[in-house]
Predict the 3D structure of the following.
Amino acid sequence: MVKKSPLQIARGNYQPKLPVALKGNVKVQEGAATQSVADQEEIKQLFPNTYGLPLLHLVAGEAANYPAINVGVILSGGQAPGGHNVIAGLYDGLKKLNPASKLYGFLGGPSGLIEGNYTELTADVIDEYRNTGGFDIIGSGRTKLEETWQFDNGIEVCKKLGITAIVIIGGDDSNTNACVLAEYYLQKQCGIQVIGCPKTIDGDLKNGMIETSFGFDTACKVYSELIGNIQRDANSAKKYWHFIRLMGRSASHIALECALQSQPNICIISEEVEAKNMTLSDIVDQIVNVIVARAEAGLNFGTILIPEGLIEFIPAMKRLIRELNDLLANNEEFVALNTDDEKRQYVKGMLSPESRELYRSLPKGIARQLTMDRDPHGNVQVSQIETEKLLIEMVAKNLAMLKGEGKYKGKFAALNHFFGYEGRCAIPSNFDADYCYSIGITASHLIAAGKTGYMALVQNLTEPAVDWKAGGVPITMMMNMERRNGKMKPVIQKALVDLNGAPFKYLEAHRAEWADENTSYVYPGPIQYYGPTEVCDQPTRTLMLEKGRNI
Ligand code: FBP
């Protein structure tokens, strides 16, 4: 018998709150036809069968008889709190429509579909995982579904299991692949529907339709608790500057949300760095100015939040990374080189003069990290690049110089942290538990209505769950053309921090006050699952501000 904590046991019995439209019988209503957010002609040509589909709304309907169906579900990419509840919602939704329906889980991510690794998800299994964090129910993976042989293998595997619909729970790249798969299966007329669900702690899968991806809420609450704890420690010991790097890939949504929750002394936003064309030394100067000012007030401590993708947004660095991406894509010559030094020399020989200069100036460790394997989607693995250490090194040098000139009299002792994996499998907050369960139920209705190429949609998320609205958005609607691995590809447009948006404006309006000697730290404390709704059910500050609410 597996031992469980009291909270695990209690969460097993938690019944997620549902929007009123998903509680009883449901029908799917078609709304307006759609078009892609950009590059309409190219996307239409690439997706002739799934382009321009209408929006879908789930509304109260009559009782109806649905045939039993077999569905396969895939967890794709990085873990995000709430994935198990999407699966539980999907299971409950399918069983409610017809108890003879079956749900299969493909193991280890998309490769489970291609290789035919699966398990049937029965009531016993689902009950074990309700309201839990993690993706361990079936595991996840980053295999990219893009080759026709993979799609054809998928058809064979589905035929064997009688599966007529696949649900892919993933981020922007995985949902792009879901759409490619939906289009291919329609072209082949093989009778397999594909539905996507918006997952990622990074918060960058959002747009006019998707208000937030699931997992962002819980992960940010976990990191904000830790940042708050560090701030209490800093304010007690008064001797360390904490450089805290936060996950989030390219986008700075996590850093921004954590700043809104905890009010650190400094929060760097990569998108602002790029917009202002800042160099690495501009960023260092900005940090140094705050440290010197606080030191003058006798405060030799503080907190600095750094988004993990920062390095990609420093314009010169961005050029370097673009050159490296093109240079290293399918480059067998590079792969065949044995030592780091050989690789370094090879890369230096191939770069443009400006990028070569920058590459040479970087500490060897960082330069090596930039040439490490891309993920299967062609992204630099920014979680492996220790920008916080690079900044500490550069800030320390700068302060030592100022000390020599008599312009800085403080003491600088720095500690580095990286928060990412700590939050990805946390027990989902009430928000994520409810949101994910609703997404799963929504997916079951889209399947029952015979839809394909859609993402399950739950909106109106700053209202109580009972007032949320459910539906479906054609995935092609969210697409544009982008350069990946050296080629133009159709992809779901990533949402970066909008510098004109309310969350960034709030940071901008308050950061001088947070940086100064009147330390204004907030200590969010741990996620609360039971208690008053204003403590337990609040969405992120980002979502509140984006919806015009006060925080
Ligand atoms: P997804 O985009 O797949 O949701 O990944 C989220 C993330 O946690 C990023 O924030 C991070 O850069 C990356 O995954 C780390 O990847 P890995 O789990 O492969 O180390």
